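Protocol step 4 of 6: structure prediction from sequence.
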Amino acid sequence: MKLLVRNLAKITTEEKLHTLFTQFGAVQSCTLVMDKETGKSKGFGFIEMPKAGEAKAAIKQLNGYKLAGNTIRVKKAEDKKENKEATAEAPKAGPKKQPAPTPQVKIPEELKDNKDNALHLYGKIKESDDQF
């Protein structure tokens, strides 16, 4: 069973983590997640324990355990397949749809040349109404 260990102090090493979990049974692997740029711990890691009963005992006893000044959180890690499926089900952002073209309004011929209208064809106010 794969376990996720969170809220680890930056000074916690894989060796310390491995030693802590071996108190509850066999540890198949122990991996701290490291920042690629700095090479320092990101504060979480994974433990693999082959026996589910031992892993459950470790979760029960170590969740909330204080290690190097931090209260760690331990739980069963989710499978990557589940995360990939969730990502696959999420709607994909496709190309943006172009807005529908603005419909062309037909202006009756009698209004096109009517100088008494408040607005001319291009939306300008006629000169005589410009005074207020």
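Step 5 (inspection) to follow. DSSP finds four helices and six strands in the chain.
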